[in-house]
Predict the structure.
Amino acid sequence: MSARDDILALVRASLHVSGAEAPRRAAVASRLAEAPVGVVPQRGQGTRSQILATFKAEAERVRATVAEVASAADAPAEIARFLRENNLPATLRHGSDPRLASLPWSATALEISHGPSDGDDVNAVSAAFAAIAETGTLALVSGSDNPTTLNFLPENHFVLVFAEDVVGDMESVVARLKATYGQGAMPRAVNFVTGPSRSADIEQTILLGAHGPRRLHIVVVGQP
Amino acid sequence: MSLAATTPHFKDNVHEALTDARLQRALPHARNFIATRAAAAARLPEFEALRDSARAIKDHTLAHLDLYLETYERKVTQSGGHVHWARDTGEALAVILDLCKARGAKSVAKGKSMVSEEIGLNAALEGAGIAAVETDLGEYIIQLRGEAPSHIIAPAIHVTRDDVEADFRRFHRELPADRDLTQPEQLLAEARAILRDKFLSADIGLTGANFLIAETGTSIIVTNEGNGDLAQTLPKVHVVLASLDKLVPTLNDAAQLLRVLARSATGQDLSVYTTLSTGPRRPGDPDGPEEYHVVLLDNGRSAMLGGQFADMLRCIRCGACMNHCPVYHAVGGHAYGWVYPGPMGAVLTPSLIGVEQGGQLPNASTFCGRCEAVCPMRIPLPNLMRHWREREFERHLTPAVVRGGIGFWAFFAKRPGLYRFATDLAMRALHLIGRSRGRFAWLPFAGGWTRYRDLAAPQGATFQARWRAKSGAVR
Amino acid sequence: MAESEAVKPPIRVGLFVTCLVDLLRPSVGFAAVKLLEDAGCKVIVPSQSCCGQPAFNSGDRPSTQAIARRTIDAFAGCDYVVAPSGSCAGMLAKHYPELFVDEPEMAIKATAFAAKCFELVSFLVDRLGVKRVSARYEGVAAYHDSCSGLRELGVRDQPRTLLAGVEGLRMVELAESDVCCGFGGTFAVKYGELSDAIVTRKSAKIDASGADTLIAGDLGCLLNMAGKMQREGRAVKARHVAEVLAGMGDDPAIGEPDAGAAS
Ligand code: SF4
């Protein structure tokens, strides 16, 4: 027997089943089809403005910084301000996301580059697929629009979040993924990011900027 | 089993740990998790309900594991990945080594994976001339030191800052000898810079998985550093090494489990990076691995299903049980002698390497129950340890002295009349000997006790004798 | 919770005295009797030995079952079974039913028995509605939560409530009061060095609390902590909560020499 068949046979022997039982198959099929939502904490719920406020508070709690701008066109100036005030180089890399490409970068002094990172970039900006109020989490999806390497390699990561994409909980992001990519299908990578990278491996003291970005600056676009 | 276990010498290990001053200086850090977990749980009113939900999800999954495994495999294949099934350590190593050799791999960047410890992957890779690079800071530190993890989520918890500085100076010879490494931030920055190059040059990225999702064929890892994420994004090949019990039906189910995982582990609401990977790079993708392989390891899990220890398969490796364990606090993780320490290790180790090897661990517990109280998956850890003791007793693996002692005692305990008579005599006698001091510093047959502490002398006649003398017996 | 449903007064309470109290410190048994009688119970003491925990925790299920059967029968005539120990009460109330999963008839019996088993102080407070005892104790005390009582039976606030009403007694905070003392029955002997490491820390915490008296609800833990503190030369007295609540705090503390002659 192949390892596969052997393992499945062992599993079935331990469970005292053949694998053909209709009720078991039905239970599995319906769970996969319905994907029931379990216990969803109240924390992320509420009116639009409450959800946005919770997102901001939770993101700051995990030591991200958050700025709010009225329109996407204000984002480049905000990022330039952040870099200037933190004495960081005026460079920025981003992918081909039209939500980023269409912005007035030339109105700033930033030197813009495009595409994935090879590890030498100090700053990058991505546009989020969604964001989660409950935990202050960003949801980023892979692809040329927002290359995954930009989420991890640069020292400083900026993320644009459109207010209407801020949802209460992870289950709502899952629902959006299904609506976008189809039931049972997924982009190659979904990165849920909750604050800047950290490690507590030296005497359990939290230090920011382990392998991923040291700073995570979130720019929320638009009002509730 | 491949990693050699020192578990049979648990008592020696304990002695060594208790007399290791450096270790004893580092160990208190494990207690920090107690307050952080409590705070995280207190901040979420739904926490207890989520624990119930999490438990139900895993119980359902395990009861239908064969079907979810088949679904999972199909979905991985559909997304362009490959599933390799491995019955045991040998098969898992063979699959991984073959993958490496076929691609001429020279180095493997690793995310944190306890299953890779279980199969002794690093040694096997090195043996085949392939560099295994641990990228989690804690794992990197202990790899330099030639040690095994002493905690499942904080592998270097037994190491002090001073140790890390000394290790970095010893191994990072290419850096100036007079550099300042007094601050933890400086150590972190140095490790980051050194590991960055290793990520970028690795041929293969290997990670574990916290969850495997049947619905979509997705593997999920959680990290705080971002190391596992780089390990699976930068190299051309991503290999996921995971055991069968990591299966979960849907992403919504995973969302439930994620809510209790980090809170129970570090007291975070969510770890910094929760990364969902489904298959290799898609057409048009500018980054990500070109190949995606999953090595699905059984190594004894299938045999645990449906049996006395099946509850243990719900474990999500949060580490809360060891963070709250007085035995773990006293001796740390290495004393347990194999891969998995603490209460979860005390149950799992005999399951995976046999009770002859691992049987000491379930005995070395006071059954204080704190582990069960905090286990997000509500695994009845003390009960499971007791089941191991029963197995040992049935199979006459219990030491003869203990067995004889229990037998002698049980003979009387089953005969209350005789028990009352014999104990009353004995207590009166002991009282006469001990009353002037009130306690004994030494007593025959009680050496295990009086070696470390005094033993209070009895007050004289037993309660039952006095009661009967006083009131004329009820029965 | 006040008095329970259908039980008519006087409530017949079977005292499960526990083997450690029976053998080593009968005064705890008499303290328990006093507290129960003061609360209006009729106390009976059927002939008994041990709850079976040493066998149970050593993996000797057959002996445990035999002991459990005897105990269940011995207390058949009682409305309640009360023990001055969270550990033994936990054995009766939580583990007896588990012993007979393969014997439906016994399982029913054991479950019914388990439902009437309680730890002393929680019985007084939760079942009988006792809010205050009349007792005096001069001292500053720290309370240690023994594991089984705390985690199997939810004994936490009840002893603190009653102790707060003891005249002359000042309670102080004990850091890590919910952490195991390292006793664990046979563990203390089988893994003496490990047990010692745990109780050494406990002893230091007790010392740091500034208390002159340590109070707990389980004699096993008390023997362990008292024995350690005495070996270390600390002057803290160890007493069972029942003794303090029953106003018997003048007797020699655990491990202290006799004041007078043998009884
Ligand atoms: S046994 Fe429970 S507490 Fe321990 S690691 Fe597993 S899930 Fe966490």
